[in-house]
Amino acid sequence: MAAKPLDSVSTSWVDHTPPEAQPYLRLARLDRPIGTWLLFWPCVFGLILGAVADGRAFTSRHDLWLLILFGIGAIVMRGAGCTFNDIVDRDIDARVARTRDRPIPSGAVSVKQAAVFLVAQCAIGLVILLQLNWLAIELGVASLGLIAIYPFMKRVTWWPQAWLGLTFNWGAVMGYAAQAGHLDAAAIILYAGCFFWTLGYDTIYALQDLEDDALAGVKSTALLFGRNAKRWIAMFYAASFALLATAGLAAHLGPLFLLLIVPAGAHLLWQARELDIGSAASALRLFRANRDAGALAALAYFVSGWLQ
User: Fold this and answer.
1) 158 class by beta-carbon count within 10 Å (0-12 exposed, 13-18 middle, 19+ buried)
2) Is the pTM above the cut of 0.90?
3) How do the domains of the chain map onto residue ranges?
């Protein structure tokens, strides 16, 4: 049976699939769904606010269809991004305890096989993209540059988490454009809020690899901030909450929205207070908790739009 990455969930449906399929499913991180959720939630935010900008609540069959498309797209493109990242980072991954058992450095999947798998995932993503309007398609194509450059950023800057923030939240503007057919201040503010959210949670994620990253020569905000990481994460989360709330107001969601978005902010505050920067287990647990933070924000946007 293929080796299981050290940061995968203890059991998943991947464990019950044919052994020959498991390395590819793990290469696409389907045994670790949190990344898909974190890619999906900004899409949901954009889809809801885009519907509001179009003068309606997020309740139609067309909205559901777009939600399904973006959900499948999040799964496929997250998998493609992880596959490309693992191809580029195979030598680094082999030197990091948490990642050395991933399919490529462990030898379960060759680089050539991973490249073929990458092309297949991108082809599915293209089919999904072509279901959207022209502005969303153009934005989707524009995101490819961000995706292609991201794996190299940890080699050249202490801020690869910032580049991930630019890349991982592109779905917010795509979702908005798919609904409204244009971008405005609310869409840009939403994107900025998601950017700071990613800066926070990916710094938490990077706390798991401090020693190995330092030995491998890999840069991260976790290494840059050191003992001050907790303070920086709190500031990133505060900026994220303020911008996500402002985006809702810019979309004219009304004063009730400010009350509904509070639980999402409280969740981010809880993470910042609860984090033990010296514990990899604490970092992984709180990183995964962002699935729930995203759900709370999405609920606030949805209910506020519905009550308009």
Assistant:
1) middle
2) yes
3) 17-306
